[in-house]
Protein 1
Amino acid sequence: MAEKQLNPSTCYNLSFFKEIMKELRRVDDNIIPRLNTTDTHSEKACGEFFSQLAEAYGKRENAVNYCLKVMDEQIEKKNKLLEEDPDDFDTKSSLFTDESKRRMIANELIVEDIVRARSLQVFKTKCKVFDTSSLELKS
């Protein structure tokens, strides 16, 4: 996958953000076919695949957290503007839109928990020789 760079405009373009998340979830979406072609009796092979999962988890979590930070900063700026001029309708409207987009991005954390749980369940079922208990992954 060609890495797409995140920037503030990416966070505000929800279609593009979701496309990035979809690309980063590809390893999870293809976990069953990938594990079917992996020597699941080999701790080394399972470990290598688990490393790919862990890397994808980190990238996705970083993407969501980055965009939440960007959104929070923008929302804070607009709240300060509203303190100065509480009747600024354009800022109120823009703030509402930003808060809605922030909620949508925050929902990606819920989706992430579901995807991780599913992937780890499949991984543990197929790669029984690999001990995942010693590895700390957010779940």
Protein 2
Amino acid sequence: MKNFANVAVAAALAAKGVSAHYIFQQLSIDTTQYAPFEYIRQNTNYNSPVTDLTSNDLRCNVGAEGADTKTVDVKAGQSFTFTLDTPVYHQGPISIYMSKAPGAASDYDASGEWFKIKDFAPDFSSGQAVWDMAGSYSYTIPTCIEDGEYLLRIQSLAIHNPWPSGIPQFYISCAQVKVSGGSGSYSPETVLIPGAFKDTDPGYTVNIYSDFHNYTVPGPAPLTC
């Protein structure tokens, strides 16, 4: 019944003209939380989503540039957390990706290869989908990646308006990190963004309100060290 309650609340807010959008704006390393957009590229579309699957804005969001963003030192195996301005409000998976910069992360346009490190997918153990709609999401830097500077990208794929009558929404932010202590033994499945997500992906086209008993998160499989 949790999903139906979420839908009812969303409808009530919509009737009042309230936006139910959100943005990942703060990064923490271990227990140290930094200022909003200190190490996360700041977007220019407030907390609105990206919906065009062919747009370069799918990489790090609209207007999100690296030149005015700091890069934080982090060790392989260290924990990090992305915190939002308001908790995730729309059903859908949360995914975390990384892309190694050829030089400084602040100069990187994110056009290179991306690999996924984590999916927060729905839990069907109760007989219905339960989504992890939280105010923050934590994981660890993989121990098997190479040292260097990376973009650390988090994505909420909101599928509350089923395709094709509705358009799924991507809420995206990229942090800039400098990783040390990795083994470099990784061999991830990589994708380009845009290009990683298609309007034929079952995880993109699914109707979560009808016969919804399993789910495949779009994109590559997460890296396993």
